[in-house]
Amino acid sequence: MERDDLIQDHNYSISANHNEAQGVVIRKKIWKVTGILTLITIVEVLIGAFIKQYDSVGEDNFLWPYVKVGFLVLTVVKAAYIVLIFMHLGDERKSFKWLILAPYILFILYLIFICLTESSYWHEVFQGVNSINP
After folding, report:
1. Furthest-apart CA pair in the chain: how many Å?
2. How many CB atoms lie within 10 A of CB 14?
3. Is residue 128 assigned to a domain?
4. Is 120 exposed, middle or buried (0-12, 13-18, 19+ CB in 10 A)?
5. 42-100 per-position pLDDT tens digit
6. What is the distance of C-alpha 28 from the center of its chain?
7. Confidence of residue 36 (pLDDT cuts 50, 70, 90)
């Protein structure tokens, strides 16, 4: 059996090439994706660098719960965008996109629910231990 890429008399291997106009469109899309992902990452880094969990006095920062939710949202947005672009899900029908993304979103929401539930449980447990052993 001969390899498909070595067969010279088939025209389908030639159709994989593109002209310069199509190359410009592809490069523009790559730069757009790179710019969006870089912008989201810069926002995440700046938020993490300038908004701290505790203020200068040592008390909880009132913005911290919003920062945590913001990190979760930005991370899920980046992950969904990567799946849509690099896995070519963005080129599919809307119903197929939701068929793929809906279980992912539900799973992420479930994980967040479990993390919040468990963290509040352990917080209560440790508060009980601290009240017993001062």
Report:
1. 84
2. 7
3. no
4. exposed
5. 999 999 888 888 877 778 888 888 888 888 889 888 888 888 888 887 778 889 888 88
6. 22
7. very high
DSSP-assigned states of every residue in 39-72: HHHHHHHHHHHH--SB-TTSSBPTTHHHHHHHHH
How many structural domains is the chain composed of?
1
101 found inside a domain: no
Q: Is residue 8 part of a domain?
A: yes
- 48 part of a folded domain: yes
R_g (Cα) of the chain, nearest Å: 24
- The predicted model scores a pTM of 0.62
Question: For residues 123 and 28, which has the higher predicted lDDT (pLDDT)?
Answer: 28
Angle at the Cα of 101 (from 97 to 103), degrees rounded to 5? 135
Nearest Cα residue to 83 out of 66, 99, 64, 61: 99
State which residues form the domain around 23: 1-67
- Residue type, position 67, single letter: V
Dihedral sign for Cα 128, 134, 59, 54, please: negative
What interhelical angle do 94-132 and 64-86 show, nearest 10? 150
